[in-house]
Amino acid sequence: xxxxxxxxxxxxxxxxxxxxxxxxxxxxxxxxxxxxxxxxxxxxxxxxxxxxxxxxxxxxxxxxxxxxxxxxxxxxxxxxxxxxxxxxxxxxxxxxxxxxxxxxxxxxxxxxxxxxxxxxxxxxxxxxxxxxxxxxxxxxxxxxxxxxxxxxxxxxxxxxxxxxxxxxxxxxxxxxxxxxxxxxxxxxxxxxxxxxxxxxxxxxxxxxxxxxxxxxxxxxxxxxxxxxxxxxxxxxxxxxxxxxxxxxxxxxxxxxxxxxxxxxxxxxxxxx
Length: 272
Ligand code: 15L
Prior knowledge:
The protein is of the alpha/beta class. 33% of the residues lie in helices and 15% in strands. It binds D-galactaro-1,5-lactone.
């Protein structure tokens, strides 16, 4: 049987770098696309390195050739100017989806963010957690761009029958420590991140789905039910880091009340 070929955009970014070793599988080739330099292939590592921008239609058309699925992580991962956010995150995602459609790629996984729903109140989350399909309440231009790509993904599913899974990622870092106490709520461990992407790649005929990307943290406020319905099972809990964060100041005011935390008060349009 031919190898499965998975294109990862933004593969040199934080999440891409964490996923590269974790999404390695026999029978799978990872095609890794980024503008930034990437580590050379390790011996035996089945990767195809591509340099290019998600806003470049020609580069994306070439990157999507012969691909079975796309994991689209590329784009600005924090607040930026409106123009840059529009161009890279929204136009870039449109370019990726269009290239995937034209190449006959049947499955696209889009990295959204908790900041698409950043102005939802933490206390909205009931026992099961905030539902993954809560309508957008962005906290930044960045959050608006993530809400827009959720809508684009839905459009490409409805119009072209593509399977599109959108993951509203909490905070995917090696540990929750750089994030402070909020990370005990929002952390998606890298291993759980890989489990979630595997579930997204493997779920039979998912159609359009919107799921939270979070570990089963003791202090979790996002629902896991939607990701679990795809076959995801979290094995990590940020709480194991709680003692190391005990001395760090707790968020206060708006940052404490809303899902987006400090993004809710970050100056709009300013790179941070
Ligand atoms: C995000 O969407 C960012 O990409 C990431 O850098 C983190 O700041 C994360 O949200 C978060 O909310 O912690």
